[in-house]
Amino acid sequence: MKVDTMRKIDKWAGVPLCTLLSVVSIVTDLFRGKSGRPAIERTLFIELSEMGSAIIADPAMRKLKAEGNAELFFVIFKDNVKSLEILKTVPAENIFTMRPSSLLHLAGDLIRFMIWCRKKQITCTIDLELFSRFTAMLSFFSLAKDRVGYSSFHDEGMFRGWLINRPVRYNPHVHMGVNFISLTNQALGFYQNPYPTSLVTGHELELAKATVPEEAKNKVREKIRGLYPEWKNERVVLFNVNASDLLPQRRWLPANFALVAQNLVAQFPDILIVFTGSPAERGYVQNVIDMTPGTRCVNSAGVFSFSELVPLYSVSSFMITNDSGPAHFAAVTDLKVFVLFGPETPSLYLPLGGNAEPFYLGLACSPCVSAANHRKTSCTERPCITGISTIQVEERLARFLAAGV
Predict the structure, then answer these.
(1) Helix pair 133-141, 3-12: axis angle to 10 deg
(2) HSE (side-chain half, CA atoms, 13 Å) at 202
């Protein structure tokens, strides 16, 4: 299904369904009673649509496992499940995937989900999504006694019933990593009201690093040589020029990427620019490369498997990318990542790990997407992202290539 279709269904069907189910939820919770601390022994995290968010949520999941001795489970859209394979915090047998391709598939998966939750004996859910009514219903259908998730509390709008019985007030002014830790702190019983009053320290947001065998790095090097036979171990620079269809407004202009690549190749004879992407993005990537007359630009879209991305990041000098999943995947390595932000804000979504640096204009209209509008914008001019100049980006990347800082 298209993203806009899912938004409409979530709104027009989600509101009445959440209202009706809330009546059942309230009555059920009254009979069950409420203990002081959630039963977190077998906790299900819910994050369907964002691959990058699965990485940002990793510190929160590890905290629940370490401090609460919880067994972790996860439900996610099938197309995004590979993001959980990077750090392997959740065992593969504890991951449930759903197919968003059609309503029929979703309906069938919902039935399978309910059976799976009973089989796994889920005791608690933590809904990581920002006010999705569908994920609130998943929390309810899991039949978990304790259901943690975001609440607007005294704020207007963003209604999704009363299916969440351990509400946490969402704070749009702090990083999503802090918001995710706040959900975990509620599950751990650190506070009882919707205000997440527990301090979240920088140490808690430290991201685990992936272990990359030398064999995996060598395999990636051989694939690079296959793309560019003349490669003599020159420095590899990565360009990720696309972004998911969830928010296409995040894309910097293809011509801008092409111009920066062309000028960097001219300035630095010891670099090879590798354009990355999925198999479906190969045509989009090739369009950018066709605008670069330089010979040291290669199209690797569809060449590297998902499991080879982390080794690729480990042998590269830096990556320039739109605000998208690869920026967060690279955060599990020491790769320097430059991220172009437009309709989103680095205050909430800058990759964890300390190696990410944003390009962000911070216009008066930015960010124009948020939890309040289900991350939808009708802006077509996109000055927040198109206004980031090629000169600004090129000069910063050139400084990094020259000095390494």
Answers:
(1) 70
(2) 2
Asked if residues 253 and 331 have their Cβ atoms less than 8 Å apart, the reply is: no
Q: CA-CA distance, 49 to 35, in Å (whole number)?
A: 32
Locate 238 and state its tokens.
């990565």
Residues 6+ apart with CB under 8 A from 198: 182, 185, 190, 191
- Which residue, 362, 352, 364, is CA-closest to 385? 362
- Cβ-proximal residues to 44 (8 Å cutoff; 6+ apart), any chain: 73, 74, 75, 117, 120, 122, 124, 125, 126, 142, 144
- Token pair, residue 61, equals 């999941």
Euclidean distance between CA atoms 88 and 210, whole angstroms: 9
**pLDDT at residue 243 in the model:** 77
β-pair partners for 358: 339
Per-residue pLDDT tens over the stretch 67-123: 999 999 999 999 999 999 999 999 999 999 999 988 899 999 999 999 999 999 999
Has residue 236 got a pLDDT over 80? yes
- The label of the residue with tokens 């990720």 reads 240
User: Counting every residue, how long is the chain?
Assistant: 405
Average pLDDT over residues 308-314: 97
d(C-alpha 185, C-alpha 64), whole Å: 8
Is 155 in contact with 172 (CB distance < 8 Å)?
no
Residues 163/57, Cβ–Cβ less than 8 Å: no
Question: Which one is the CATH code of 3-205: 3.40.630.30, 3.40.50.300, 3.30.379.10, 3.40.50.2000?
Answer: 3.40.50.2000
Tell me where in the chain the CATH 3.40.50.2000 domain(s) lie. 3-205, 214-403
Q: How many CB atoms lie within 10 A of CB 163?
A: 26
CATH annotation of 214-403: 3.40.50.2000
pLDDT for 1 equals: 74
Lowest mean pLDDT among 1-5, 112-116, 159-163, 293-297: 1-5
**Do residues 56 and 134 make contact, with C-beta atoms less than 8 angstroms apart?**
no
